[in-house]
Write a structure and sequence with these properties.
Rossmann fold; 3 domains; 10 strands; globular; disordered C terminus
Length: about 325
């Protein structure tokens, strides 16, 4: 057995108890952090690389190249190195340090783009880099690679159908590359024609790492994303995502910002429905977001052990400090 063999077959968790009073609803989520790279992205990267090797597109003299906000980059670095290839990744400079460290630990090289220009700048840069050196690289191009969404169509969605053991009435997802919501959405609509596919739309600024803002004139729309599958969009803020990450952590589920965004989307959905089965994804591990501020306490006093005994003014007097709010 190799690392390729332990990708997928993640459990479907019951999260219904996070939504008290919803007696007619079942809410479940795929635990995608259980993949060896710690995220959902192991699935499409595995398929894209294997198919490229089988077709002869990826040869030993080529370097694997793509852009990533981090999780796909980890999967490329981990699996590309395992398969014996060099890997170069273009990543926005504001990707979490934990992700960058994990990528480099597998021996991949990182090219960072200006974080103020957003993730689309990384996309533009990687296309230009490949255009300038086509002989050097195998450009996997996860944004237009059909093996991306097919990985989810053939594995993630199939697993959901078997594990749910009943009709799925709603699926909540979002767009990074568009692969998961397109592949899962297509398969689930074939199996359950009346299912509603709910798209989580993140705010533009400060954004939600791993999810792509949609709707601005200059936004790059992934070629593999099939927007016709989306029945309804739900707008979610970074604060919404952070709040749900913390709620999940209090239940022992330590997951990242996009997972919090999905649960925020589920929460908004439950305001309008009273029965059915909602399925979503827990995309990645929460410990790759320590440096982003996701887990930063809201106030200094909230982490001060003297808080249990003294009021804030007394704490300041005893410690010689002033209690100040910290931006979260």
């Amino acid at each position: 057995m190799s690392i390729l063999d332990i990708i997928g077959n993640t459990p479907l968790l019951d999260l219904t108890d996070l939504f008290p009073g919803m007696n007619g609803l079942i809410i479940q989520a795929k635990a995608e952090w259980r993949n060896p790279g710690g995220s959902l992205k192991d699935r499409p990267v595995k398929r894209m690389l294997i198919r490229a090797i089988e077709s002869g597109q990826l040869t030993r003299d080529k370097i694997i190249l793509d852009s990533s906000s981090g999780n796909a980059g980890i999967a490329y670095a981990m699996l590309g190195t395992t398969l014996g290839y060099r890997v170069h990744l273009v990543i926005p400079g504001n990707a979490s340090n934990e992700r960058k460290l994990r990528i480099r630990s597998h021996g991949a090289e990182i090219i960072e783009t200006d974080p103020l220009e957003g993730y689309d700048e990384a996309l533009r840069f990687v296309h230009q880099l490949y255009k300038d050196h086509p002989e050097k690289y195998f450009f996997c191009d996860q944004y237009s690679n059909n093996d991306n969404w097919l990985a989810h169509y053939e594995t993630t969605a199939e697993e959901m159908i078997v594990q749910a053991a009943g009709e799925i009435t709603h699926f909540v997802g979002s767009v990074g590359t568009g692969g998961s919501i397109t592949g899962i959405g297509r398969k689930l609509k074939e199996k359950f024609p009346t299912i509603q596919i709910i798209g989580v739309r993140p705010e533009i600024w400060p954004g939600i790492e791993g999810l792509k803002p949609m709707g601005s004139p200059g936004d790059i729309i992934p070629k593999i994303f099939d927007e016709s599958l989306i029945d309804h969009w739900v707008d979610v803020t970074a604060d919404d995502a952070k709040e749900w990450c913390k709620r999940l952590a209090m239940r022992g589920l330590f997951v990242g910002q996009s997972s919090g965004a999905y649960l925020a989307g589920v929460s908004k959905l439950t305001e309008n429905i009273r029965s059915g089965r909602i399925v979503t994804l827990l995309n990645d591990l929460g410990d790759r977001y320590f440096s982003t501020g996701l887990w930063k306490p809201n106030t200094v006093a909230s982490i001060n052990p003297l808080e249990d005994y003294f009021q804030p003014r007394e704490i300041a007097a005893r410690t010689g400090s002033v209690a100040m709010e910290v931006n979260s």
